[in-house]
Specification:
Number of domains: 3
Number of helices: 16
Helix content: over 70%
Distance between the termini: 95 Å
Strand content: under 5%
Radius of gyration: 25 Å
Structural class: mainly alpha
Largest sheet: none
Length: 298
């Protein structure tokens, strides 16, 4: 039913769009819009187009009465597919994300994630930069359109991770370090994907500050995070304990995380061992006072 689809699209936004706000954007009265949502009035196609535009959803989703939450679920699955492909080094199919960006995406966080992924693969520096800037703005508190809900920090970490990788690719190490540091500060989610994001942010920072105390601390955090997601048995267990805190990690992404985590964990353990050897070697070369000579100075 068209009215049900309009109501679901309006109330699924964060913050929820009021009837009055939507009516103002569409250019109709609150009373008329209320009748549309309650099925009393069937909107004309121009009015329905205006409603869809104001809600950033495809007109077809309202005409067909298809569930907005179901559409978001499908797009979430496609986002996870792209992340899985990136982890495994495969070229992902970006078609569904490009289509979603064109027709509009419900939900600030999901829109930010899609923009960040498209930016990462954008061959045009200008449009890629514009996409990642829009994604950062969407998940940054205090900016217009930012989402204040609880999951925003984890989405912010994901977006900042990608932004840092783009900065590093263009040799802007200082910007990459800043972005990854900001991302790590808010990468606190318990899910498999959030844990993997935390591990990658830590490892990226460790690679930049090779050999420093910061690098060793980052490597330790990366190892701790990777150990949590390197066991296939953890897939169902970890996701079952989330209590609905964000979308569950799908099997394809979960398996990609496990495979990637195992390889990265071996790398991290090896680098920690090398760092420890170098640190011990430096301490052995510290010049110590001549004890026998110091006695004569008493």
């Amino acid at each position: 039913m068209v009215g049900d689809a309009v109501r679901e699209a309006r109330t699924s936004r964060r913050p929820i769009l009021t009837l009055a706000s939507l009516a103002s954007a569409v250019g109709c009265s609150v009373a008329l819009l209320s009748k549309v949502e309650n099925g009393v009035v069937v909107p004309s196609l121009p009015m329905l187009s205006a409603i869809a535009y104001a809600l950033s959803v495809p007109v077809g989703s309202l005409i067909n009465g298809s569930s907005v939450s179901a559409q978001a679920g499908r797009l979430e699955a496609q986002v996870q597919q792209v992340h899985a492909s990136r982890l495994l080094g495969w070229r992902p199919d970006l078609g569904p994300l490009v289509d979603a960006e064109r027709v509009g995406i419900v939900g600030v966080e999901l829109r930010a994630r899609v923009l960040a992924l498209l930016a990462a693969f954008d061959q045009d520096a200008v449009s890629g930069g514009s996409r990642i800037a829009d994604a950062i703005a969407l998940v940054t508190p205090g900016t217009i359109g930012a989402n204040p809900v609880s999951r925003a920090p984890d989405v912010r970490a994901e977006v900042l991770m990608t932004a840092g990788e783009m900065a590093f690719a263009r040799s802007d190490v200082a910007e990459a370090t800043t972005l990854w540091g900001r991302g790590l500060a808010c990468a606190t989610g318990p899910g498999m994907w959030q844990t993997m994001v935390r591990a990658r942010l830590s490892l990226n920072l460790a690679r930049i500050n090779e050999g420093s105390g910061t690098s060793i601390a980052a490597l330790s955090l990366a190892r701790e995070s990777l150990e949590l997601v390197s066991d296939p048995a953890m897939i169902a267990q970890r996701e079952a304990n989330l209590d609905g805190d964000g979308p569950a990690t799908g099997t394809v992404l979960a398996l990609a995380i496990v495979a990637t985590a195992r390889g990265l964990l071996a790398e991290v353990v090896g680098r920690i061992a090398v760092s420890s050897v170098k640190r011990d070697a430096r301490s052995d070369h510290v010049v110590r006072p001549d004890v026998s000579h110091s006695r004569h100075l008493r």
